[in-house]
Amino acid sequence: MNILGMGPAELLLIFVIVLIVLGPDKLPGLARTLGKIIRELRRMSLEVTAEFVKELRNMEAISDEVKEATETIRQVADIKRTLVESLEPALGAEEDTAAEEAPVEKDIAVEEAAEEDIAAEKTLVEADTAAEEAPVEEDTAMEETSVKEDEAEDHE
Fold first, then answer.
1. What's the whole-number average pLDDT of the chain?
2. Residue pair 59/47 in contact by the 8 Å Cβ criterion
3. What is the spatial distance between Cα 128 and Cα 120, in angstroms, rounded to a whole number?
4. Cα torsion for 130, 136, 141, 147, to the nearest 10°?
5. Cα-based distances in Å from 149 to 121, 137, 145
6. DSSP H helical segments within the chain, as ranges?
7. CA distance linking residue 16 with residue 6, whole number of Å
8. pTM for the model
């Protein structure tokens, strides 16, 4: 019998030392206290073990659900692939018709975009022209004001 790595002779030696130190009066109380502590530790150990087992079972159940969902997704993907493969010949004829109509619509959109660009460029040119003319008009107005002020000073 080996308890905590100690044989029977070592346990007997510890028991004798405790009996000498505490005396025969306190030994039964110490034994009861040790018994309660050991019982509480076992109870806690069993609770932890039970909780661990419960969580492990829950994880296994979740794992099974994930496997089932994965299998369902694979089946749906297989069905989709089969449908696409069976409908490809019919879709191919529709795509040819759509491909013939698409360039015409694309050309119209390109022309509209080009017209919008031209209109935007005209607006920019007009704005630049107006901006160039505005300083000239301001300079002329400033010169006229300056001349009028000079004339008013000369009259005084």
1. 76
2. no
3. 12
4. 180
5. 43, 18, 6
6. 8-22, 27-155
7. 15
8. 0.38
